[in-house]
Structures are given as structure tokens and as C-alpha cells.
Write a structure and sequence with these properties.
By secondary structure, this protein is an all-alpha fold. The protein is 43% helix and 0% strand. It contains four helices and no strands. The longest helix is centred in the middle third of the chain and has 14 residues, at 45-58.
Length: 92
């Protein structure tokens, strides 16, 4: 008899990218509205603690909650697109 413990199921997708398909499912709601991207911003610690607490108790993902907050903020605002960036004539 083999007394070794059962092997854990490999949680990686066939392409070796971990739980990529799981992550894609989590962002389905965001993808319905458009593309998703990652950005880094500075935010006050007290506001982040409130955000995390609210997300936890209301069973939201942080990204989902931030998208909802931004959508509600911009609901009644008209925002013009940012002008294109002028390229520098300096070349390396």
C-alpha cells in the first residue's frame, strides 16, 4: 500500500499563468463596460481602510468597488477628452 498523502491538484492553467482564468472571471463586470488597466495612485490611509472595510463587509472586490465609485462620481459630469500629447522634437 502507498501511504503517501494524495497529491494536491495543480491550480495552474494549461499555459502556466496561474489562475488567470479565475482573475478574468472576477473582472467580467468591468470588462462589460470596456477595457481594464492597472494604475498606481497615492491615497490617504484612512480612506483606503474604509474602502477595504466596506468591500469586505459588502462582499465586493476592491476593483469592482472602485469602478462603481468612479462611475457614480462621473454620472452627472461632462468630461472633455484630454488633448493629445505633443511629441518632443528631441531624439536620442
Amino acid at each position: 500500500m502507498n501511504s503517501s498523502p494524495p497529491l494536491k491538484k495543480n491550480n495552474r492553467s494549461a499555459n502556466g499563468n496561474g489562475n488567470q482564468s479565475d482573475a478574468e472571471r472576477r473582472y467580467t463586470r468591468s470588462l462589460i463596460k470596456g477595457e481594464v488597466t492597472r494604475h498606481t495612485y497615492y491615497a490617504r490611509v484612512d480612506l483606503l481602510e474604509k474602502l477595504r472595510g466596506y468591500a469586505y463587509w459588502e462582499r465586493y472586490g476592491i476593483s469592482e468597488l472602485i469602478n462603481q465609485i468612479l462611475e457614480e462620481f462621473f454620472e452627472d459630469k461632462e468630461v472633455k477628452p484630454k488633448p493629445p500629447r505633443k511629441r518632443s522634437s528631441y531624439r536620442r
